[in-house]
Amino acid sequence: MEQKGIRELKANDKGECNLTRNGGFSLKKMSISPPYSPELQNHLIGKHLLAFEIPFSQELLAEHIKNGYVSETCGVQSGNGGYRCVRCGNKDQTLFYTFPCKICNQDCTYCRSCIMMGRVSECAKLYRWTGPGIQFKIPDNVLRWAVTLSAGQQNASDCVVEAINGKDEFLVWAVCGAGKTEILFPAIEAALHAGKRICLATPRTDVVLELSPRLKKLFLALESRPSMPGVKIAMVFRH
Ligand SMILES: [Zn+2]
Ligand SMILES: [Zn+2]
Q1: Residue 99 C-alpha to ligand 2 middle, in angstroms?
Q2: What is the pLDDT of residue 91?
Q3: pLDDT for 231 beyond 90
Q4: Average pLDDT in the 98-125 region?
Q5: How many domains is the chain built from?
Q6: Any idea which ligand is nearest the CA of 74?
Q7: Residue-range definition of the domain harbouring residue 203
Q8: How far is the CA of 230 from the centre of ligand 1 (A)?
Q9: Same domain as 140, residue 235
Q10: Distance from the CA of 110 to the center of ligand 2, in angstroms?
Q11: Could you give the angle at which helices 180-193 and 151-165 cross, rounded to 10 degrees?
Q12: What pTM, to 2 d.p., does this model score?
């Protein structure tokens, strides 16, 4: 029963609520969202993962798909132009291969372009987070680094920072030992402050192994704060 000056919350069968006052006019529309797992959100966000790469129960995953927080798509799809890999975007038909699949018991096509990350085929499902995003809180002193760059390094570093801020492309080309890695640190710091995510890609495992502890030490503040879920340094390498 409505009373003067009292707001009433009416929920429909979709879980949406209309906030009404005495006259019944709508003041504000809001929805009551089902809860979700921050751990699953943190694991999936920004990625396309296969089932074996998701260390959560099938029930939890199914619940999130039902509530619209996770999407499930076939890894390889076919259309007018032929096959397309949903994970790596490959459309080169020479990089697809059709084989008698024991999982779906029929001829099944997989992507050879990203096979090093695990086989994505027509019957393999890819999962992606489609729910709420993660809000990052980056501290001012995110980079703990006291080394001074040389004049040449500083110049290159400033250019990389400028490229980050301008969403531009920039190539630093220098000989081994010139200090290219150090040039990146201020740029990574600038990108973090701008709310961006950083991907460092290298074809060499030894570089990953060498760089990983350095970055974790320099940007340790990111991982040690529970108030910043989702902010972490992850190193992945496969041969
Ligand atoms: Zn692919
Ligand atoms: Zn199959």
Answers
A1: 8
A2: 95
A3: no
A4: 95
A5: 3
A6: 2
A7: 135-239
A8: 25
A9: yes
A10: 8
A11: 30
A12: 0.62
Q: Above 60 in pLDDT, residue 6?
A: no
Q: Separation of 163 CA from ligand 1 center, angstroms? A: 29
Ligand nearest to the CA of 107: 2
Q: Residues 115, 45: one domain?
A: yes
C-alpha closest to that of 197 among 168, 225, 166, 164 = 164
Max Cα–Cα distance, the chain, nearest Å: 77
User: What's the rounded Cα separation, in Å, for the pair 210 and 113?
Assistant: 27
Among 186, 193, 204, 205, which residue's Cα sits nearest to residue 231?
193
Instruction: Calculate how far, in angstroms, residue 117's C-alpha sits from the geometric centre of ligand 1.
Output: 9
Q: What is the pLDDT of residue 80?
A: 83
In 89-200, which residue ranges form alpha helices assigned H by DSSP?
A: 151-165, 180-193
Counting ligands in written order, which one lies closest to the CA of residue 105? Answer: 2
pLDDT in tens, 200-216: 888 888 888 888 888 88
Please tell me whether residues 111 and 146 are part of one structural domain: no
Say if residue 12 is in the same domain as residue 79.
no
Question: Are 141 and 223 in a shared domain?
Answer: yes
Ligand with the closest atom to the CA of 98: 2
Task: Please give the torsion angle defined by the CA atoms of residues 227, 230, 233 and 234, in that order, rounded to the nearest 10 degrees.
Answer: 150
CA of 114 relative to ligand 1 center, distance in Å? 4
Question: What's the 119 CA to ligand 1 centre distance in angstroms?
Answer: 8
